[in-house]
Amino acid sequence: MGKEYEKQSLALLFHENTKKINTFEEFDINTQYKIYPNACSINLSDYYNREELVEDELFNVILNRASTRRWADKGIELNDLAKLLRLSCGKRLLKEDEKYACRTYASAGARYPIEVYLVILKSKKMNIGIYHYNVFENSLELIKKGDFSKKVYEFYDGQPFKSQPPCIIFFSMMFERTMSKYGERGYRFMLIDAGHIGQNLYLVSERLGIGIVELGAGINNDEIIDEIIGINSNYENVFLGFALGYKERNIK
Questions:
Q1: Helical H runs in 101-172?
Q2: Coil/strand/helix, residue 172
Q3: Residue 164 vs residues 75, 148, 167, 210, 246: alpha-carbon distances, Å
Q4: Which residues of 47-65 are buried (b: 16+ CB within 10 A; e: fewer)?
Q5: Strands 167-174, 129-134: parallel, antiparallel or unpaired by DSSP?
Q6: If phi over 0 gives left and psi between -120 and 50 gives alpha, with beta otherwise, what is residue 140?
Q7: 87 Rama sector, left if φ>0, alpha if ψ -120 to 50, beta otherwise
Q8: CB-CB neighbours of 236 under 10 Å
Q9: Mind listing the pLDDT tens digit for each residue in 30-61?
């Protein structure tokens, strides 16, 4: 994005000032809910059968979605990784009246500003290293070969992992794709896009027996990950990560 625009952009100023988390505050779990105690209410549990939700495959996946911080000591099989990426952030099926395929998640103006990178830390069938997910060709591009586990684990040193994940997925945002159309409001849209993909990752992972946890921040500035991957921080920034691997009970 042009330097002149960056000087005027409050959204990018906010982004720059939140690349590192400065504090972790204790929270009261009761503040997660809001109620109106004096309002008339409808008990929605009376309008569906609990067994129906549990027995339906899709509903069951949603109800069992959870974060995982303990993984089996093996890498993710390539066939499962292929399904995870295609269904979470790849192209969806082309409809008859469409000239090009949209993706499996909603994106404001179909701008798709999120890029997806994988750091493979453990695998028997893939080269250890950093990959970029090429949505257009539905392929993984090896952009850096090597063991980056020490650097990645150090960045997430504050995370309470019970075991070391074999794979980390990173999201980066390409600011200009969305903000060139929507201006400052576009920054919100990019975060919403990330939420859509993140939920897809969680649900598809649950279906595949993969444990996943979202990583909102490391102990240092996000630009460390930009440097590890090798992207230009003037135009693209990593801002979100996910650790994943097979759940201990789902070793294949």
A1: 149-155
A2: strand
A3: 11, 13, 9, 14, 11
A4: eeeeeeeeeeeeeebeeee
A5: unpaired
A6: beta
A7: alpha
A8: 19
A9: 777 888 999 999 999 999 998 989 899 999 99
Q: Which two tokens stand for residue 186?
A: 């576009």
CB distance 179 to 1 below 8 Å: yes
Q: Is the pLDDT of residue 244 over 60?
A: yes
Burial class (CB in 10 A: 0-12, 13-18, 19+), 81: buried
Report how far residue 42's alpha carbon sits from residue 1's, in angstroms, rounded to the nearest whole number: 49
DSSP, res 95: P
**Band of the pLDDT at 17, cuts 50, 70, 90?**
confident
Provide the pLDDT for residue 7: 54
pLDDT number for residue 4: 42
Distance, CA of 94 to CA of 92 (rounded, Å): 6
CATH of 4-32+68-246, one of 3.40.109.10, 3.30.70.20, 3.40.50.2300, 3.30.360.10: 3.40.109.10
Is-above-0.85 flag for pTM?
yes
How far is it, in rounded angstroms, from Cα 180 to Cα 183? 6
